[in-house]
Amino acid sequence: MRISLFITCYNDTLFPETGKSVVRLLERLGHEVDFRYEQTCCGQMHYNTGYQAEAMPLMRRFVEVFKGAEVICIPSSSCVGMVRDHYAKMAEAKGDAELVQAVNDLLPRIYELSELLVNKLGMEDVGAYYPHRVTYHASCHSLRSLHLGDLPLRLLRKVRGIELVELSGVDQCCGFGGTFAVKNADVSAAMLAEKMRCIEDTRAEVCTAVDNSCLMHIFGGLHRQRAGVKTVHLAEILASTEEESAR
Amino acid sequence: MSIRVGGAADAPAFPKAAPALLDDAQLRKNVRHATDVITQKRARVVEEQRDWQQLRTSASAIKAHTMRYLDEYLLQFETACTEAGGQVHWAADADEANQIIVGLVQKYGGREVIKVKTMTSDEIGLNKGLEMNGIRPHETDLADMIIQLGRDEPSHIVVPALHKNRQQVREIFMQAMGLKELGDRPEDLTAAARQYLREKFLTIKIGISGANFLIAETGGVCVVESEGNGRMCLTLPDVLITVAGIEKVIPAFRDLEVFLQLLPRSATGERMNPYNSLWTGVQPDEGPKHFHVVLLDNGRTRILADEEGRQTLHCIRCGACLNACPVYRQTGGHAYGSIYAGPVGAILTPQLFNMQHAESLPYASSLCGACYEVCPVKINIPEVLIHLRGRLVREQQSEASLEAISMKAVARIFSSRRSFEAAQRLGRLGQWPFVRDGWITRLPGMLGNWTAVRDLQPLPKQTFRSWWRKREKEKRNA
C-alpha cells in the first residue's frame, strides 16, 4: 500500500526520529511511504487558541496537499483529532461546496498510526523488539476524540522483550493542552506533577504515547527533576528490531 | 436597585487566582477527596445503567427541541401555572428579579425567608438584595448554610462547600451558632444543623426556591435534593417564591423520566435523589397558600441567539463536569470567580456576563474532553470553549497583542513550504543563546512559563524533511 505521511509540523522540526521510525516500520511491513514536501501544519494550535481565521488557509493547504492520497498516516492523535473534529465544520462555515466535498473525501482516508496498523492493516504483531520496562500514557485526544481504546496497548503487548506496566490515572490529562501550558502555567505544572508521580511510581524506564506533544511536556518535567525516565513515541518502539539493537 | 451580580464582577483572571489556591494544601486535599468520591460513585451507577448513552442522546434531543421552541413552551408554562393558582413574573435581568422578589416578600410582610438550595438566586445576588432591604435570608441546604455562616463563596454547583472538611465545618458552626462544644462526626454536625434550622422552618412564613425543571404541559415545578430541608421550605411556609432561569423548562411531565435518571447519577452518584418534590400551583388544604414563579432571562436569550453557544443552555447543573475536570480538581471552584465554576462555568459565565471580567475562563481548560464525556446532556464543552476563544480573538482584533502578532506570524510561516523550511533553519540558529549543556532551561517572556518547571530539548540538527530529502537523493544516486 502507498501510504502518505503527514509528519506534523512539530514532529518534523522537533522529533524527526518519530518520522524516521514510521518510515522504517511501514517499509519493513512492505508498504511504500510517500512524503509530500508542501505539507506544513494542520492548524490545530491556531484553531484551538481562537485564531480560527488563521487556521482556515492551513486547512485548505492540508486538503490540497493530500488530494488523491490513498491512505494518510498521522503519528499524532491531536492532529488527527483536529482534522476529524473540525475540518468539515470549517469547510461548511466557508460555504464552499467543493471544499466540503474535498474534506469529506479526505476524512475516511486519515489514520492515526495505531489505527492504521490495527484497523486498516489488520496487524498487532509488527515484529518489534524492545527490551525495556515501559508504561503507556493515553493522551486525551487518543482517548476522547479518536476513541483509540486499547489499540496502542494491543500493539505494545506483541512487542518482544517489553515489560509493560500499567500507569495509574491513565485517563487523566497530563496538563499540556497546547497554549494552556503557558497561559495557565501554574495549573499545568500541578497537573504535570501529578502525572510524573504516577509515571515514577511504575518504575518504568520509558513512558510512551501516540503524541509527542504530551511527551515533550512530560519529559521536560522529568528531565528537570532528573528522574531518569525517558519518553519515546510509540512509533519508535514499534520500529525497533532485534537486529537493530544487536548492532 | 443595583447589587453585585452573581459572580465574576471584580474577580481576578483565572491564571491570577489559581496560584494561591494551588498553594492551599488543605483545600486541594479536600477538593481531591470529594471529587474522587463522587467520581467513583458516579462511575458505578452509570455503568449499571445499560441505556446510559441512549438516555444522554434523548436528553440532548429534548433540550435542543425545547430551545428551538422556548418561547412557546414558556408561554405554555405560564398559562398552566396560572390556571393551577400560581403567579408568573418575568425578569429581564438580575436587578429586575431582585425587585420582584423583594417586592413580594414586602407585600406579604416578611422580615425573614428560608431558602432551598438555588444557584439562580446566587447568580442574581439575591441574598444581598434581600439584606439591603432589611430582609434576612436563611440558607437551609446544609452546604449552603456552611457557606453562608462562614461568609464564604460556593465552590461547586452541587456541593458548594466541597472545599471544606468536617473540622472546618465544626469551627464555622461553633462560631456562628455560639456553641461551646461540638464534635466533628457527621452525626454531631447534622444534629447541630437540625437544631438550628428546625426553629426557622417552624416560624418563617416565606420560602424561596430554585427549580430543576419547569414543566410546560402542567405548569408544575420540580426540585430534587438529598436532605429534606428543601421539602420543608417547599411545604411549610404560607408563601413560596421560585426563581428559575428560562432554560429550565421542559415540554412534558414524561420528559422527567429521562432527566430524573440522568441527574442524580451524574450529580451525586445516586440512582435516585432522596427527595424529589413536584408541585403544581397551590392546593386548598396543604402547602403554601401563595405561589410565585420568577422566570429569569439575565443574558439567556442572548446565548440562545448564538447558534454555537446555545447548547450551554442545556445544562442541568449536575456538576459532573467539575468532578471530572483535571483543572477544577487542582484549583477548586474559587479560581473561576463565579458561582458557576468548572468546565460549564468556563462557558456559562463569559456568555451570561457577555465576556466582561470573564475573558480568561474559556482558556482555563486543557481541552482534555473529560467534561464532554461525562455530561448527561452531551454538551460539547470543548467545542464551545473553542468557539468562545474565537469570539474573544475576533473582538480583540484591533489590539496588537504580542500573542496575536506571534500567532499571525506563525500562520504566515506555515503558509508555504519555503517559509516553513526557512523558519526551521532560523530556529535552529536562533536557539543557541538559550542552550546550556545541550538543554534549554530558561526562556524569556511567556515562554518562560514553559521553562519554569520543564526543560526543553533544542531543535535537532536535522529535520525530518531534510533526512527524507537526503535519503531520496541517495536512493536516486544508488
Short characterization:
Chain A has 247 residues and is α/β, with parallel strands linked by helices.
What does this structure look like?
The complex is a heterodimer of chains A (247) and B (478). Chain A has 247 residues and is an alpha/beta fold. Chain A has helices spanning 9-14, 16-28, 44-49, 52-65, 77-94, 97-106, 113-120, 140-145, 151-157, 180-183, 185-201, 212-224, 234-239, 242-246, and strands at residues 2-5, 32-35, 71-74, 110-112, 133-136, 163-165, 206-209, 230-233. Chain A has a four-stranded parallel sheet with strand order 2-1-3-4, with helices on both faces. Chain B has 478 residues and is an alpha/beta fold. Chain B folds into two domains: 14-301, NagB/RpiA/CoA transferase-like (Rossmann fold, 3-Layer(aba) Sandwich); 402-477, no CATH class. Chain B has 22 helices and twelve strands. In chain B, the strands form three sheets. A six-stranded parallel sheet of chain B has the order 1-10-7-4-2-3, with helices on both faces. At the A-B interface, helix 1, helix 2, helix 3, helix 4 and helix 8 of A face helix 1, helix 17, helix 18, helix 19 and helix 20 of B.
